[in-house]
Amino acid sequence: MERTPVWFMRQAGRSLPEYRELRKQFNLFEVCRRPELCAEVTLQPVAAHGVDAAVMFADIMLPVLGMGVEVELVESVGPVVEEPVRTMADVERLRVADPEEAVPFILEAIRLVRSDLHPDRAVVGFCGGPFTVAGYLIEGKPTRDFVLVKTLMYREPAVWHALMDKLAETFTAYVRAQVAAGADVIQVFDSWVGALSPADYREFAGPYASRILAALDVPTIHFGTGTATLLSSMADAGGDVIGLDWRIPLDDGWAIVGEDRGVQGNLDPAVMLGPWGRIEAGAADVLARAGGRPGHIFNLGHGVLPDTDPAALRRLVELVHERTAKEAVA
Fold first, then answer.
1. Which of 23, 66, 189, 325 sits at 20 to 30 Å (Cα–Cα) from 170?
2. How does residue 73 score in pLDDT terms, banded at 50, 70 and 90?
């Protein structure tokens, strides 16, 4: 029966008690480096929530480890880069590694997930958007204002473009290897690209996301947050589906990216921390704005928050499936 597919960004991991038990023994990178464990964590939310896809459990910084960058994932902070990349010499030291050598564990985990997952469910692989990853590499840690990033962009554009070129080349190889391993869909997470103006996006970020998306022969999702002013430029850059965060009504966002694209989204992740009545009303609003049109993937407007009740996520999946199945029949 036709119905709207549902999955969640960051559905695997921190909100699930089974994962929290594993994390008492292993850090995130250790989980990723053990294919059987990574596959187990990836599949946990499929069973727990009844979602229509397994979103690979990984981190957007994984492929840069193979480039020769030391990254530590600091609890409650995020990725911290030991030696930030800020000069042409820093960029020239970065390697463009073969994914089978740099991240073989992720590729093996994808093979395991694809073999264990029911054929009617998708395996979603992903990479970070080059702008977002460059932000971590240049700033050295998460930031809100991207001052060092923008300073480099404006003062040293040759360094910026050289870095983005290497990231685009590395990530293109990475996601193509994921597809070869069994990923059915690839999402580019340019999470922090909303820090840019539309003109800066087109000059400094869009062309590099475009290279990655254009290199794939499977369905692609192009996502960022704070992107209401960038949606038309993101659609121009590519992606069969454009991810919408919660800051723009879904129907308004869809009108901007065009009816020939699908959209993903876009319930505010924080709504999941509220009472069921609030969750139900928010989901109903998203579905009403989608209007039963083909091409909508129901999702949150960003990742699942750690304090989200897994039972509420399952109830949400059931609600979306039930309501959209009825609409298909009607």
1. 23
2. confident
The catalytic position among 19, 136, 201, 208 is 136
Q: Establish whether 14 is a catalytic residue.
A: yes
Q: Which residue among the candidates 3, 23, 111, 315 is catalytic per the annotation? A: 23
The per-residue pLDDT for 2 is: 86
Q: What is the pLDDT of residue 176?
A: 98
What is the tens place of the pLDDT at every residue in 200-236?
A: 999 999 999 999 999 999 999 999 999 999 999 999 9
- What SS3 class is residue 31? helix
Per-domain boundaries in the chain: 17-329
**Residue 10 designated active-site:** yes
**Angle between helices 206-214 and 130-139 in degrees, nearest 10:** 130
Q: What is the DSSP letter of 161?
A: H
CA distance 61 to 232: 27
In the residue annotation, 23 being an active-site residue is answered as yes
Spot the catalytic one: 10, 33, 121, 323: 10
- The CATH architecture one would assign to domain 17-329 is Alpha-Beta Barrel (3.20)
- pLDDT for the residue 14: 87
